[in-house]
Amino acid sequence: MFRRYKDYLPLSLLPDDEGTPYRQRTEMAPRRRLLTYGFIAVSVFLNLYFCYSALTSWPTPLDNYQPLNTHPIVDETALSVFKPPNSQDNAVVTGLYTDAFASAVATLGHTLNVANSSAARLLFYLPDKISKRALCIATVSGWEPIPIERIAPPFKGVGRHFLDQYSKLHLWTLDQRGYKSVLYIDADALVRRNFDELFRLPHTFGAVPDVYTTAQGYTTAFNAGVMFLRPDSELFNDMVAKIATARYPAEQAEQAFLNLYFGAEAVRLPYAYNANLAIKGRTPALWDALQDEMRIMHFTMAKPFLQGDYAEVPLNQLERNAEKVARKKSTYKREIVEWLEAWHETRRVYRSKIDRCDALRD
Question: Where exactly are the transmembrane stretches of this chain (predicted)?
Answer without folding.
Answer: 34-55
